[in-house]
Amino acid sequence: MTHPKRRAAAERLARSAPPGALHVVMDPDPAGKPSVLRTALCAWEAIEDGATHQLVVQDDMILSDTFFARARMAIAEMPHAALALFALWDSRNGAAVRFGALTGARWVGAVNEYFPCVAIILPREVASGFAAFGRRHLDSWPDDILMNRYLRAHGIPSYVSVPSLAEHEDHGSISGNAFRGPRRSVCFVPQDVPGCEGARLTGLRVLPFFKQGVAQCAVRVDDPGDGPAQGAGHWLHLDCEQYLEGVGVRPERHQSAIVRMAEVTTPEAAKGAWLTAFTMGFVHRRDGLRCDPATTGPDGPSGPAPVPDAATAPATDVVPDPAVLAEALATVGPGGISYAQSEDRIAEQRDELARITLAGLEAGHEAAERARPARRFQAEPSASRRNDSHQGAPHRSTFRRSDSRRPDPDHGAADRSDPHRSDPHRGDPDRSAAERMDADSSDPLPVEVIGADTPLGEHLVRGLTDAGHRVTTSTHRPTGHPTPALLDLTALTFPQAEPPGIRSTLTLTLQLPSLATEFALRLGDLYGPGCPHDSRIGRLVWDALRSYPLTLDDPAERLRPLHTRDLVAALAGLLRTPPPEGVVGLADAPVTAAELAEAVRTAVRPVPLAPPGPAAPPTSEDAAWPPPPPGWKPVTELHYGLHTHAQWLAYEGIHLAMEV
């Protein structure tokens, strides 16, 4: 698939393939708005009579020497599956490929993001179905996000190759993706030897990846009634530090050594690459990840066979390929800094970042060997629910760590100066002895959350649990079951049509041994993972994701961004140290709508701005804004916060807001 501007490259790629394997499909409207989807649909509709599968390759790809041999063997092994032959070096599917390289797998189950479409094979009926689906959603989402939506909705098993069978030449972007920087494969080995295509790794639940300069981590949460279908459940969007904190691992003691290793690269890049690899090594060794060459379970709508439990999996002869593993690890650092650095500068740092990544992986393996049994988050009926026999009792669940003991001291002392830590008040000399005793107790303060059955509620519950609280959830305020703290989310709304200055309010009730007070928390413009697409900030992010112009009702309107992570940190602190005032304001410094739009254009996509409407009347919001809790301040940088919001909307929020 190509555009007339790159027809020569497409014809050259077609000539490099076996005779008749590839032919060129052109953009049907080359002078129109740039659209990969428009051309892709023509390619999917061009399937020839008698063909069982359709291969679509974009014109700027380089194919491996064994591309067609491996592709044919994979089709024979997985005839009903969608097969992606490329994954980006900073993506979640790329993180899955790295786990595949660690275990010797040849294919990994695709995970929750876009499904890579630059080199992809679909069964004939799937190709036809997606073409019809895409026609209904032209001028909406990119083809790779729509592809993931379609495959997931129809239960079509989806895999990504290990290593990649194609590499991106990356000589500019007609569709407007050049702002993302170099876009290379997670692992391209041109001379990869075909074979063992049944060696698959599926069921991954933790995905560490280095992107936008931040060591990030996606964690799978099962939905009620989940079956074996691939893609079931949903995912929490954390960073590696948050994830490790939640499982009781603190790698801070290694940080000085990381900085000493950084001679060519920056300390920030070194830390991000090392922390990503540490998390990867910890999860790999703790969970005993392995693939099974005999895994030939159903690849129809019911999904692939899950990975065997590490304790019961049979010994296999699958071993990692050293060349594949080395290349997969060598791209961790370059992928994480590619958004802001040139290809030449990235190449200068590649070898050093590869050494740092390998050191982080080994440290993660060692930490997993030392760790106590993995801390897992589980839901169970609360005591009041178990003892309540009358009909119509509200549903209540308790979330807790299965091992409530303190983390192993071998993992290093916590750095309490780190602004990303979820307990900013611990050790405050101004607090009373009783309060410090309560905060530092091995039995953390329980909290009941009302109305947590939303994506945002799930993020808040997870964050408070990571902060050490024993969290109980229920559908409405309990009667006769007092708890030390009560967090009511039912009053939390995301006003879109209300006048500027009207903001969401949630009520937090604290019932500590010495006082019982209800505090009102004034939230600014909440954004981040779990927040909907039609909130004030979500609407701009949602439009930018779909390449729509950003429309501002009033460019001078003042907004107060508050990221969900900062809300969790504030709640964790307030549950330990009640504020002196009855009303507390939680928000970052105010920005104008025009400033916010520019941040969205930088963090999400550089779309144009639509002409503004008439200015709204000024408000007295700034003068009326209540003070923040003592010692609390937001730490999430706006551009990164918008990036995380965009990721959540594209990979999770789309399933809540879009019909198939």
Short descriptors:
2 domains, single chain, eight-stranded mixed β-sheet, Rossmann fold, alpha/beta, 660 residues
What is the compact description of this entry?
Helices cover 34% and strands 15% of the residues. It is built from 20 helices and 23 strands.
Residue share in helix: 25-40%
Strand content: 15-25%
Helix vs. strand class: alpha/beta
Query: Count the helices. How many?
Result: 20
Strand order of the largest sheet: 12-13-15-14-16-17-18-22
End-to-end separation:
25 Å
Note the main sheet: 8 strands, mixed
Describe this structure in words.
The protein is α/β, with parallel strands linked by helices and 660 residues long. It folds into two domains: 4-370, no CATH class; 377-402 and 421-657, Rossmann fold (3-Layer(aba) Sandwich), CATH 3.40.50. Helix content is 34%, strand content 15%. It has 20 helices and 23 strands. An eight-stranded mixed beta sheet has the order 12-13-15-14-16-17-18-22. A six-stranded mixed beta sheet has the order 1-5-3-6-4-8, with helices on both faces. Helix 15 (455-466) links the parallel strand 14 (447-450) and strand 15 (471-474). Helix 4 (92-103) packs antiparallel against helix 10 (322-330), helix 9 (267-286) crosses helix 12 and helix 16 (536-545) packs across helix 20. It is globular and about 75 Å long. It starts with 6 loop residues before the first helix and ends with a helix. The model is unreliable at 226-231, 294-316, 374-442 and 497-502 (pLDDT under 50).
